[in-house]
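Q: Hi! New to this. If I give you a protein sequence and the SMILES for zinc ion, can you show me the bound structure?
A: Yes, paste them in.
Q: Okay, here:
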Amino acid sequence: MTNAEIAAALEELGILYELDGAVKYRVLAYSTAAKAIRESPVSVAELSAQGRATEVPGVGKTLAEKIAALIETGEIPAAVKLKAKFPPTLIEVTRVPGVGPKTARRLFEELEISSMEDLKTAAEGEKIRDVKGLGPKAEENILASLERLGEPGEGPGRLLLSKVKPIAEELAAALREHPAANRVEVAGSVRRWGETCKDIDLIATAEQPAALAEHLAGHPLIAAAGKPGPNGVRAQTHNGISVDLRIVPPAAFGNLLQHFTGSQAHNVQLREEAVGRGLSVSEHGITDTESGDVETCETEQRVYERLGYAYIEPELREGRGELKAAREGKLPDLVELADIKGDLHSHTTLSDGRNSLEEMAEGAQDRGYEYLAITDHSASHGFGDHVTAERLWERIDEVRAWNESSGSRGFRLLAGSEINIGLDGTLDYPDDLVAALDWVVASVHTSFNVSEAQMTERVLAAIENPNVDCIGHLTGRLIGRREPYGVDVEAVAEAAARTGTMIEINGNPNRRDLSDLHARLAAEAGVKIVLNTDAHGVDTLDNMAYAIATARRAWLTASDIANTKNWREFSKLLKQT
Ligand SMILES: [Zn+2]
Ligand SMILES: [Zn+2]
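A: Thanks. Here is the predicted structure of the protein with zinc ion bound:
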């Protein structure tokens, strides 16, 4: 049983409990554990078999027992019981953004809505507005959500960061320009650079709050908005993203920004630790429980300082040990975009890219890089437009010629290839050609549906190949669309560290592969990590920002990343120099 399947079962149980009226914290425990299991770099089924499931963050004894039962029988007894009480299609209804389990239960009881079809019919028939606590706005939101769910490619309620971030930034910029605004920040998972987000949280201070709220409501990106007021406004963009602008007193800006940046896990741990020291933390301030004195903080720095921590970068706020590190002064000095000296995975029109070699070279120079590897696809990757062996020999000459005429000490192109790893672990070019390349990325593009053991063997074979410099997008996941394929990341990382094979963090926002947790594991195992864009055009060279963000969420510093080095130093890291 995969981590994803176990996570889905626990998530479902959490929803069932909530439908049944369980208290929020109990429900939260299930979704928190489900997330940790889904993100776990090791097989939870295996851990469970060894009686070690409780090693997963958020999994206690009770949950471990439920997981064991699930693996053994395919069902969790508590879920079976509750499923007899609620129609299975009602669970789908709870996942519609704007509905949730509480509302779903009400709709079930009052309007006998038990499926998505029922929900749609009721919303279109204007029946939902009459349910207590809902109203016409809620009905409109539900209709908008249903429309959006019709589009493939996105998990219900979660959108890819790259779809949300540009909108959040445009709205924040528009608010900052308004004369009534003082400070405007994007909070939430967008600020933490999470893989997906549910909505946009904006926190602001303003001279005339109501005027600023009205400005947001009238922005061209906004399709509908509630009533703007001095505390802000809730709105929805044309593509259905909820936007929440909170306008707050300047004296508590730091508290509110910290609170709404999250994550939930980070904030829960922060509050619990504070309680132990006689302090109570909320979005409104920090209360000394003995004296009752409340301190509000203008800045986040002050919030952390007051609680005894060094400032914690938003990317680290996931409840993964950052509070302890911040207390002990052991937070990592995170890598930054300015540290990056080159990009080692890019495509041109020779395979499926949109720009020529010359244009890509110029794009890389514009970004201040010292090197760019051109890595078009090998023959068997399955998208067409592949490069034959004969053509690749020519391409090597073209790259050499470009370096002669246009290169300099400050910038060079590398003749490379992204070579498909065959089912048996072999590469699909002759050895002499592969050896002639400056740089080789080996990736899996075909035959995903093999056992974890077979996939691992396949990748290990590529790692043992002396000509392979780097493994591309190791797990093959497409966020929200394709689950990572089963591969033993620990075994791969061990072999990569031993052989000096690098592993990339692919910065395509659909991939971000290695994930943050896998990247942290790999770096701790001693693997040299490379941040790549896999750009298929000059514009997507900018996806380095997502690779950087993933690395930062993995706690990585510049010294963990190979392509923070200049060419001379970087070339020393190659397996064959
Ligand atoms: Zn690829
Ligand atoms: Zn690629």
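A: The domain at 337-572 is CATH 3.20.20.140 (TIM Barrel). Let me know if you'd like me to explain how to read the tokens.
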